[in-house]
Amino acid sequence: MIIRRLTVILLLRPLPKHLDEEAVVDRISPEKDLDGISPVNLAKVFAGDKTGFAPCTAEAVVEMLDFAGIDVTGKRVTVVGRSLVIGKPVSMLLLKKNATVTICHTKTKDMKEECRRADILVAAAGVAKMINAEYVGKGAVVIDVGINVDNNGKLCGDVDTDGISSLASVATPVPGGVRFGYNIGACKAFVYRQQKKTDKKLQKVKGYGMKVAICDDSEQDIADLKEKLLKIIEGQIENCEIHVYTDVTKFLKEIHTIFFLMEYFWILICRR
Length: 272
Hints:
Elements: H1 21-26, H2 39-47, H3 56-67, E1 76-80, H4 87-96, E2 100-104, H5 111-116, E3 120-123, E4 141-144, E5 148-149, E6 155-156, H6 161-164, E7 170-171, H7 178-198, E8 205-215, H8 219-233, E9 237-245, H9 248-258, E10 265-270
Parallel strand pairs: 1-2, 1-3, 3-4, 4-7, 8-9, 8-10
Antiparallel strand pairs: 5-6
């Protein structure tokens, strides 16, 4: 298989212990940095520079709020976690949308009270089911960014979803929540990067194609995601193919045939 052009780079972390993660990140070109983790992109995000690309997970939080029609202007938003991948960049993105943002971390005094004040609570601490009913105010919107494994070996987030169900007006599930926004963010990042290379006025990208596969057991979720992707891609990419699957066995059988030609940028979206 011949890869004719390397369009973007997505670094999946953590890296093996013998590799210097910081050195690897420093070598990623900002223009090819799909996940927005290079120092140049992060600096631009913090400075409010529109030419910078934020990490896709941070973009995903904003995308989900937009998708749900939740206006953050003037709202009290508390972000639990201060990592460069989600905590800090999502705070900057929400500040840009005129939210009033508080960042909580391991040294925060009376974190539970700070969280209870929030209209929107973003959990990105990396601790399984840390956010329980003591952290959530009545009617709050709760976005769970965490991916953890509980004592029973099952995937879970940073939020005790069952424990906060009577308090939160909206709470994203894990798995299956922020991942939706992440895929949209990755798609946007690719389109915008190609537009930037072609014309700063964001004209149609010529000579590029995109192939997308969506595999999910929910036909409604597939339809929602496909509609959102088409809105982003429409008029921006010359050729786009979207393949949908509800049967993972069929998906695995056809995936090599569909995505063999690497002239296209391709995205795989697989949700549990």
